[in-house]
Amino acid sequence: MGRPHSASFNSLIPATARGGALLIVALAALSLPLSGSMAHSQSGWAGVMAVGIAATVCCLAAIFALFLTERTRGSLNAVSGLLGSILLRTMVPLAIGFVISRINRELFEAGVFGWFVVYYLGCLATETLVVTRVLGQQQDVEAAR
User: What is the pTM of this model?
Assistant: First the structure.
């Protein structure tokens, strides 16, 4: 009974990095009107800019990490690829958010670092679902051999 439900849920999650990248971009694009309007009501156009920068940086970092994971799966460098993707996904948004909050006081006051956290967590959750599907598909292929 539980199997058809999980099969239908799995069919919604892409099994490739390209599909995962499209899902990450689509979810970010769907969230931008709400988060942008919230940021605009609190901080004006600087808030909108903070949301846009955070969404762009976090989505790009998650997409690159996803492609790195897919590229190294099943190879001798699979663990290194996973660790590299974690480093890439985490450190790029953290470093850029920190630099922006230091050099641009207006974006700092608009909450750019908070928006980095929001989009980082959203991209992390989406990327984790896609990576588990991508790696699970690889195991299914190997088990079928």
Answer: 0.85
